From TrEMBL, chains A, B:
PROSITE patterns: COPPER_AMINE_OXID_2
Note accompanying the cofactor annotation: Contains 1 topaquinone per subunit.
PTMs per UniProt: Topaquinone (TPQ) is generated by copper-dependent autoxidation of a specific tyrosyl residue.
Domain Copper amine oxidase N2-terminal: 65-148
Species per Swiss-Prot/TrEMBL record: Rhynchospora pubera
Family: Belongs to the copper/topaquinone oxidase family.
Swiss-Prot/TrEMBL keywords: Copper, Disulfide bond, Metal-binding, Oxidoreductase, TPQ
Active-site positions on this chain: D362 (proton acceptor), Y450 (schiff-base intermediate with substrate)
Protein name (record): Amine oxidase
GO molecular function: copper ion binding; primary methylamine oxidase activity; quinone binding
Length: 719, 719
């Protein structure tokens, strides 16, 4: 594959001259020296001002924790082992490495490991394809032993970046494609195309990796997504680059105008209306530095919390070994062994030819971490943020660094941790309030048009909030309509007319978290505390009804499959079966749902079979190291044979066991004009909240803010 | 009523010596000169540092807007008119003034008023009782004309502060009460009592205002709420102070210990464990000052938004005349005429003798604004906050000032307004992100034990978030149990054992907002956009199903009564019937629900009849000036004859009309030990979100943060 010509194409296709200058900064292509940065290694102690991005020389990384990701050196070792592994050694160029990451030691080994202990054997797990045959291999980096692991019956591994970058380019050498584009009145030099996973609908030709290519005109805007060449779909063989089929149902559908589509500051600042004034500068300031420490690059400590954090090519952020110090006793208590985004499911709601297949599973198909770009200091994260990099692998096994992929910062928004004033009724002079400060770990994945912002927020009171925000750019549909009055009544646009010739198609977003809870250790159970109306016996009370809480412990997986319902309120407790509080309550954490959405698709519709992990909002499974990816290990073109739903329907016992909690956060998105040409952030979240985990309010001790402790600030000289 | 002895009692009862020094600061009793502050009037322009609380001499207040609340002078005028009004004039001491506030001019008058116009006639509306007979009077302050308005058939007005302060004191002169307390082993000097509204259960004696008094031991703690003298209930006549009945079912139930109950910093700071370290100072800083202005005390302008804000004795915060400048055209557009918390409903879920009647309606019974105490600078609101006062009225009609009742501040939490990066697929060098800054108006009401924090949050993208956070102290029940193992199986505690002898009783919170929407003016309709599964015709598509949006316009009130359901997803649009966007979409705002809870009580249970406004989460009614209080004008001992539910069941037409949106935010609260002895904040919210209101993303123009614009801060000298 020819990167320089690909770059040249993209340059033309996007019409931005910045590209030539900066294209290599965001993604180190193997063709460039990826690790040319010479900046010295910095150990970030709390006294270090961490406002600057962490600039670390990953060549010098040291492994200090069993869960530390593979270093550059380890990746190179693993790669050389793979290249000399039979059969790969006979034709190394026929080998594609789809992922190469740490093969984590067994949970029991990690849980018993203590700082100072020698590290368990370092192993890598590689997902590769050699001459079209998939391999999943565990590689011992010291003994160089390679063990073949089971391979799923259907589907393909996550696409490589090279797959995604080369596929859109392939049709350009096809005469028919050129003819079609020209027939649509678009200059080839203005064309930008996207690689779109095509799911599985029974008819997919077996035994080949296919992808659908759809194209846009980038003429006059960097936001080519708003200018679809509607109805044109190229079916491509991802490996041979053969154009299997070209479909163009878009004749007569104009390309939407580029007017008002560019969102870049360089463009908008020049035509900002006189009446629009930006707010005065406001900033989160902590000049004495953050309160958290990041040791050896991955081990975070803050306000009693400690955890291991790392970047993962598929999941994005992985949080491991989460524990918190009990304020009563000073002892550390376990909460969660491992938590991450396991899969996404994004079905669009247009059944027509060029749209029906758009049912993305972004983690398993595109790599949620691979798409996580460097965060923008001062804008993606506040000034007091600390940044972590990711180290990923190209298709030929070479390591590269994704800079500033994760940020960590303390957050204070003016909210209140707890408060009480005595009121005029008692008129006691009590006015106690405490500011709420939290720790946020953030990443943002840009899966082509869409941007997902994932926050892990840790509160001093023991609550953990998983928040997902959506921004970025809609996937829009071209139409000949320029006004709703032109739309024949009864005709379904499958969305909203956002601008002349532009339809925002209705779609859902589902983000499924895998949360391996270890509340005070692995011996956990799951209880559904059902709140139901209880009628009083006649004469028992002037009341005829009240709300009664009844605790039901789920014995098996099916008893723990939850469809939320406002009029069937429940609490969902993961609790320890051996430990209680002083007065006898089981120590637990509860899942607290906020706004969410459920999939409304037919459970037997092929996309819903593949996305069956969204059939419930909550699932509980017994711990199984091999059950990490809710849509299956191989999601690309999968048939739904290896999903959370399939595993859980085995209905295994889950009582008093090491259990895993799965939660799916959902959004229905009916686009509106405010989403054009780029969307204001929409977010939702869910919480893990301590429930009788602590003996009492764990933040009673928090001191109030006092003027003398706050920073002294002046407006900047340039203000 | 003897204030000094009441103070002495409370001093003993709470054991805090601060009280004697400061008791008068939080609530100016008529017996003190209420307005002794001499600090000069400050006009807060954006260039003024508003970190300091606003300290205004309300004697000099000038009325500059038709909706400005009554000034001290106006209250004094209204009072003198009332006192000389026949029949009151014959015995002024028999007159009780339950509320005295602005009688707002007709909506049409206010909407057509422009700055510079002369003000419409200033009128006050008084709710009074004279010789046990209620009067609702409109008083013209210039003509001195008094008009009697209709009086509800049942119920009583909101209690006066004097009612609430004197009732708990009344039983102390009763021998039987003293005997009971002594029999429970509590010293009279340690007793603190609360006035508890008793609702209505059919049996209430007619024609008298009754209240139930329950008591606590304040020995050894300021948090007497954790030490109930369980089972003791005194039924009291609020007017005669006659003890009607004493019930004590608490024999054998010990008073819980005071251990670990005090939460005040003065106490906790001395026994903080060594391993607990507060986070380093962090602060919201904007040294060049806020971007908002507050003109004439009530008119707020920020980032295109403008509205009128005032404190109200019953509702707390009232937001009026909300509009926003369209970034496309620079013209101002109406969004909402008036919004406020109309009522609360807080039923406890224990049907037994001492608990069944606890079904509070905090706004109509206690006064949500009357209970809103001064906010604590740096802790209730961040350093950059600006504070507004309230002016209220005592039972004899004298005005007093509630200082710092509302704060306004710009909020930046490190969140993102919108973003997009191009990903490795296209590898274009685009990294655009914008920080999210919002404006918050906040109050906190302490209704005895509970604290409600109400935020109105305004976003630059046109979204309005109504957020309610709960903190403060649980209303707990004494028990003889000290461990869950002592509880006989099958016995219902109606809650959770929080500590030895302390049960946190299950309860709900419902907060009902009245939102008089005027989206681009009063000609509005309400549409339910239903998202339903649509099956494809055979052969139509490889997909068998998709999600289809269908718009149903509600013609009458009943068609707009919404019970939310996750598996019946809908959007709820209030839209203008005369105005559309360029491409023909009706301009609207949608209600976006987040986490909420529904009342599960029997609809015919007396408390639910009174709280029937919680029967749906969303209601729409045609505008009616007299329909402001969802539980009725007279809520105390009401029978549910005058609620939102009764009005809306008339099923009036609401299409293409001036309509009012009602939204109820709910919480189920099953207490846990973390809520003892004071609760970490729990919050939820709902949004009003523009939907095709703007032609495109209204914050496209926002500039990114740049280092040169941010403040220069240093840790404080003492750090």
């Amino acid at each position: 594959m020819d990167y320089s010509s690909l770059k040249r194409f993209l340059l033309l296709a996007t019409g931005t001259f910045l590209l030539l200058l900066f294209a290599h900064f965001s993604f180190h292509l193997p063709s460039n020296p990826p690790f040319s940065r010479s900046s010295p290694f910095l150990f970030h102690s709390p006294s270090v001002n961490t406002a600057k991005p962490a600039s670390r020389n990953h060549e010098t990384d040291i492994v200090s924790h069993p869960l530390d990701p593979l270093t550059i050196q380890e990746i190179n070792i693993a790669r050389s082992i793979l290249l000399s592994y039979s059969p790969f050694s006979s034709s190394p160029s026929s080998l594609t490495i789809h992922s190469l990451s740490l093969d984590e030691p067994d949970k029991s080994v990690v849980r018993s490991w203590k700082p100072g202990n020698s590290l368990p054997a370092r192993k890598a797990v590689a997902v590769t394809r050699y001459k079209d045959k998939p391999y999943v291999l565990s590689i011992d980096l010291s003994t160089k032993e390679v063990v073949q692991l089971p391979v799923p019956d259907s589907g393909y591994p996550t696409m490589t970046i090279e797959d995604m970058m080369s596929a859109p380019w392939a049709p350009f050498s096809d005469k028919a494609f050129n003819a079609t584009i020209t027939a649509r009145g678009v200059r080839m030099s203005d064309v930008a195309c996207l690689p779109i996973s095509l799911g599985w609908y029974g008819q997919t030709e077996e035994g080949r990796r296919l992808i659908k290519i759809q194209c846009y005109s980038a003429e006059g805007t960097a936001n080519f997504y708003m200018r679809p060449i509607e109805g044109l779909t190229v079916l491509l063989d991802m490996d041979t680059k053969e154009v299997v089929e070209i479909t163009d149902k878009g004749n007569g559908i104009p390309i939407p105008s580029s007017t008002n589509t560019d969102y870049r500051y360089a463009v908008t600042k020049n035509n900002r209306a006189a009446w629009l004034k930006a707010p005065n500068p406001i900033s989160l300031e902590q000049p004495s530095g953050p309160s958290f420490t990041v040791s050896e690059g991955h081990q975070v400590k803050w306000a009693g919390w400690d955890f291991h954090i790392k970047a993962d090519a598929r999941a994005g952020i992985i949080i491991s070994g989460l524990g918190i110090i009990d304020p009563e006793t000073g002892t550390r208590r376990e909460v969660m062994y491992k938590g991450f985004v396991s899969e996404l499911f994004v079905p669009y709601m247009d059944p027509t030819n060029a749209w029906y297949f758009k049912t993305y599973m972004d983690a398993g198909e595109y790599g949620f971490g691979l798409q996580a770009m460097p965060l923008v200091p001062l804008n993606d994260c506040p000034r007091n943020a600390y940044y972590l990099d990711g180290v990923f692998v190209t298709a030929d096994g070479k390591p590269y660094v994704r800079e500033n992929m994760i940020c960590l910062f303390e957050k204070y928004s003016g909210d209140i941790a707890w408060r009480h004033s005595e009121c005029p009724i008692t008129d006691m002079e009590i006015k106690e309030a405490r500011p709420k400060v939290t720790l946020v770990a953030r990443m943002s994945a840009s899966v082509a048009n869409y941007d997902y912002i994932v926050d892990w927020e840790f509160q001093t009171d023991g609550l953990i909030r998983m928040k997902v925000a959506l921004s970025g750019i809609l996937m829009v549909k071209g139409t000949s309509y320029t006004h709703t009055k032109d739309v024949p009544s009864g005709e379904d646009m499958y969305g909203t007319l956002l601008s002349e010739n532009v339809i925002g198609v209705i779609h859902d977003h589902f983000i499924t978290f895998r949360l391996d809870m270890d509340v005070d250790g692995p011996a956990n159970s799951f209880a559904r505390v059902k709140l139901t109306r209880q009628a009083t016996a006649s004469g028992e009370s002037p009341r005829t009804s009240f709300l009664k809480a009844t605790r039901h412990v789920a014995a098996t997986e099916k008893e723990a499959q939850v469809k939320l319902a406002l009029y069937k309120p429940e609490e969902f407790h993961v609790y320890n079966t051996e430990k209680t509080t002083r007065v006898g309550n089981p120590t637990g954490y509860k899942v607290v749902s906020a706004g969410t959405a459920a999939s409304m698709l037919d459970p037997n519709d092929p996309p819903q079979l593949r996305g069956a992990f969204t059939n419930n909002q909550i699932w509980i499974t017994p711990y199984n190291k091999s059950e990490e990816w809710a849509g299956g290990l191989f999601v690309y073109q999968s048939k739904g044979e290896d999903t959370l739903s399939v595993w859980a329907d085995r209905n295994r016992p889950i009582e008093n066991k090491d259990i895993v909690l799965w939660y799916t956060l959902g959004f229905h998105h009916v686009p509106c004009q405010e989403d054009f040409p780029i969307m204001p952030t929409v977010s939702s979240s869910f919480d893990l909240k301590p429930v009788n985990f602590f003996e009492k309010n764990p933040v009673l001790w928090l001191p109030p803010n006092q003027e003398k402790d706050l920073p002294v600030c002046t407006a900047t000289a340039t203000a």
